[in-house]
Amino acid sequence: MSDLEFMQQAIACAHSVEGHTSPRPAVGAVIVRDNRVIGRGATSPPYGPHAEIHALNEAGATAASGADLYTTLEPCCIAIHTPPCTKAIIAAGIRRVIIGALDPNPRVSGRGVAQLREAGINVVTGIAQQETSALIRPFATYITQGRPYVTAKWAMTLDGKLATHTGDAHWISGPAARTWVHQLRDRVDAIMIGAGTAHADNPLLTVRLTEAQRVHKRTPRQDPLRIVLSSYGKLGSHLHLLQEQLAPGTCVMVSETSSLQQREDLRQRGVQVIEVPANKTGQVDLVAALNILAQKGIMHLLLEGGSNLLGTAFGHNLIDHVAAFIAPKLIGGAGSPSPIGGSGLAVMQHALRLQGVSIQTIDEDLLIEGEIPHI
Ligand code: AOF
Ligand code: ZN
């Protein structure tokens, strides 16, 4: 098998824990001896051992000596919560280290590779660069910008509408597309919607998948944190998200200008209330809200609408990844909402162009995904 094929196996290990390691990156590693995988590992939830250590342990000291290590991320050379992986790799007598992406953490970046080379280990970098970099995108944004990586997801009709003029949106995309969204939810740390969407759709925002549809079989875990952004905290008590037994631990982010009584009422219902600095109009400052979430260890945030929230995120250039479904349906209506509100751009030349675009069909729906570069 080639380096690329063994790296694919390390990537599969990383995928098995994606979204379950925050605020750490999801890393996968395999140890290879005589062209055979003898150890596998993936990053533990905070703060257990790193991927490389699990792989070394599985291989065992005797077999690991003189073997090759494939890892999706440059091994760490600093002791934050666990001893540095470089030290363990050198001590184990690994002969060759094959790395996907370099660590975006400025405390590690390049130093891990340098330490291994200084110890006489043959180090190869940049294998499966695209896939291994994609795996650490949330961590890269988190560690370099101090905010969560933001995925904006929506489903719209072929004529670009999120709902009819009466607000009905059940359903735009088909069942297979909706299952895909639940799998996406299973890979993120938190899901945020605006108060308008909370009232219009009355969603649960839970991950509803059968065992067979679940990617993450290793760590059955709690659902991602559900967040409603509601500047004034005025939310109907009928909302499913506010029912402790249906959606436990929902968080409502309110502006610091909201009434104390309103916040107290929410807290009485078991809701977690977070006060966020206000912008000039007294509403929640979304940049400040994201910084607060990063401090809570939220590395990947999924925005599920609606138009106002996505318009604000777009206006502040906070969207990193787009996952847009287009359903072959027409509903029309000048007043029917479209995915991104706000004031929008004036000239086409300034349009944000997605990069690394992937287009696929999921049953009858089209899914377009891509990254938004921040230059
Ligand atoms: C690795 N293997 O599996 C991961 C790495 O002590 P921590 O977990 O908070 O992380 C320290 C740094 O190690 C973290 O900032 C990141 O750069 C890197 N993560 N490194 O060798 C792993 N998850
Ligand atoms: Zn490490």
TrEMBL record:
Keyword annotations of the record: Hydrolase, Metal-binding, Multifunctional enzyme, NADP, Oxidoreductase, Riboflavin biosynthesis, Zinc
Pathway(s) this gene product operates in, as recorded in its UniProt entry: Cofactor biosynthesis; riboflavin biosynthesis; 5-amino-6-(D-ribitylamino)uracil from GTP: step 2/4; Cofactor biosynthesis; riboflavin biosynthesis; 5-amino-6-(D-ribitylamino)uracil from GTP: step 3/4
Cofactor(s) required, per the database record: Zn(2+)
Cofactor: how bound: Binds 1 zinc ion.
Protein name in UniProt: Riboflavin biosynthesis protein RibD
Binding site for substrate: R185, L205, R208, E304
CMP/dCMP-type deaminase domain: residues covered: 1-124
Function: Converts 2,5-diamino-6-(ribosylamino)-4(3h)-pyrimidinone 5'-phosphate into 5-amino-6-(ribosylamino)-2,4(1h,3h)-pyrimidinedione 5'-phosphate.
Active site: E52
Homology family: In the C-terminal section; belongs to the HTP reductase family.
Hydrolase is among the record's keywords: yes
Binding residue positions for Zn(2+): H50, C76, C85
Keyword NADP in annotation: yes
Signal peptide: none
One Pfam family cited in the UniProt record for this chain: RibD_C
Entry EC number(s): 3.5.4.26, 1.1.1.193
Binding locations of NADP(+): A155, W171, T197, D201, S231
Transmembrane segments: none
Catalytic activity: 5-amino-6-(5-phospho-D-ribitylamino)uracil + NADP(+) = 5-amino-6-(5-phospho-D-ribosylamino)uracil + NADPH + H(+); 2,5-diamino-6-hydroxy-4-(5-phosphoribosylamino)-pyrimidine + H2O + H(+) = 5-amino-6-(5-phospho-D-ribosylamino)uracil + NH4(+)
GO biological process: riboflavin biosynthetic process
Biological source species: Ktedonobacter racemifer DSM 44963
Any one GO molecular-function label of the UniProt entry: zinc ion binding
